[in-house]
């Protein structure tokens, strides 16, 4: 019988599993404590559980360890991991250090099928979705690293490789697990999920009425350009995307962050800034300008510094809240998918 990843279950699911296995439901709190507070590596370490219960757990669950294939540390403290999953696939996870704490960027899929032309994650397409537990394990492993320096994961961004809303249910399950105050206890307001614009899932996410941060990868202010950069725009064009964004804001009363990667002479001209301001003018939102990371397999170049600030100035003139993302991990190939792409290329050569 194939065993389940031990990090796959929410607290309530542990209670149900225990009842189904003729064990008291209160054991769920002990299991959660072992997994997420004490952060043990094996079931046999759960010493306050009976031998009978531990055997039942051994029969049905396993720690699907993330094996570190590569670990790069940037001069700014950013740490990027290339983890190998139980089936040999590789994924990336990043720890970013800020003045306000440590943030972990998690991956939701092995690769990505969205096909965005400026992103390394899509090189080679998508291999498979991750389970909730495989996403949770990235946070647990990051926390174990931070334990050594008495640090803590204070926030999570679901912005690594893959499209979270293309793996929707496991992503939602992941949030429920890491948010639980009996375990990792990461507050909803300290979690942000990003999507390239899968519209039906935006409505589903809005209807949860969570306090989780929500970001949309926009990257272009008109359909023609966005379709060229992001093929998903053919299926979900800007008019429909903006309708979904308005629904999200009206339903949750929370603002949206629009991610906008600036690419030299592609989407960074004054007219693009004016067009973007007009597109989002009626929305409760914030724009995060991202100087594009150079990816060897892609042709895009960085927008000159003065043009980045000019773009920002035009948006501010139209009363748009805007910031320029602080660069982190540039010296360790911290752009999504770069480390994995290099690993795949190396494996192929072998």
TrEMBL record:
Coiled coil residues, start to end: none
Name of one Pfam family that matches: RlmN_N
One Gene Ontology biological process: tRNA methylation
UniProt binding sites for S-adenosyl-L-methionine: 162-163, 194, 217-219, 293
Cofactor binding, per record: Binds 1 [4Fe-4S] cluster. The cluster is coordinated with 3 cysteines and an exchangeable S-adenosyl-L-methionine.
Positions with a binding annotation for [4Fe-4S] cluster: 112, 116, 119
HAMAP family: RNA_methyltr_RlmN
Biological role: Specifically methylates position 2 of adenine 2503 in 23S rRNA and position 2 of adenine 37 in tRNAs.
Name of the protein in its database record: Probable dual-specificity RNA methyltransferase RlmN
């Amino acid at each position: 019988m194939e065993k389940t990843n031990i990090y796959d279950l929410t607290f309530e699911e542990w209670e149900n599993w225990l009842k189904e296995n003729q064990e008291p439901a209160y054991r769920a709190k002990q299991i959660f404590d072992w997994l997420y507070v004490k952060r043990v590596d094996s079931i046999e370490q759960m010493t306050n559980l009976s031998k009978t219960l531990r055997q039942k757990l051994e029969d049905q669950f396993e720690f699907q360890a993330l094996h570190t294939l590569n670990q790069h540390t940037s001069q700014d403290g950013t740490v990027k991991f290339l983890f190998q999953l139980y089936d040999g696939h590789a994924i990336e996870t990043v720890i970013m250090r800020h003045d306000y704490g440590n943030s972990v960027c998690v991956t939701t899929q092995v690769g990505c099928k969205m096909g965005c032309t400026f992103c390394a994650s899509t090189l080679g397409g998508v291999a498979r979705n991750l389970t909730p537990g495989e996403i949770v394990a990235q946070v647990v492993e990051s926390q174990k690293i931070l334990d050594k320096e008495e640090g803590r994961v204070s926030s999570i961004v679901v912005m690594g490789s893959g499209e979270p809303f293309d793996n929707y249910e496991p992503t939602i399950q992941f949030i429920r697990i890491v948010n639980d105050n009996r375990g990792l206890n990461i507050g909803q307001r300290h979690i942000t999920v990003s999507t390239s614009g899968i519209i039906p899932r935006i409505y589903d996410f809005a209807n949860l009425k969570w306090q989780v941060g929500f970001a949309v990868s926009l990257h272009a202010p008109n359909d023609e350009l966005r379709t060229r950069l992001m093929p998903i725009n053919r299926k979900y064009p800007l008019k429909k995307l903006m309708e979904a964004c308005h629904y999200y804001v009206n339903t949750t009363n929370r603002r949206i962050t629009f991610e906008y990667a600036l690419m030299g002479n592609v989407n960074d001209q004054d007219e693009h800034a004016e067009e973007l301001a007009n597109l989002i003018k009626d929305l409760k939102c914030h724009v995060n300008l991202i100087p594009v990371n150079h990816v060897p397999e892609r042709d895009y170049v960085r927008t000159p510094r003065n043009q980045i600030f000019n773009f920002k100035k035009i948006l501010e003139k139209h009363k748009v809240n805007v910031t320029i993302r602080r660069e982190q991990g540039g010296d360790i190939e911290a752009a999504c998918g770069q480390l994995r792409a290099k690993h795949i290329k190396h494996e192929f050569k072998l």
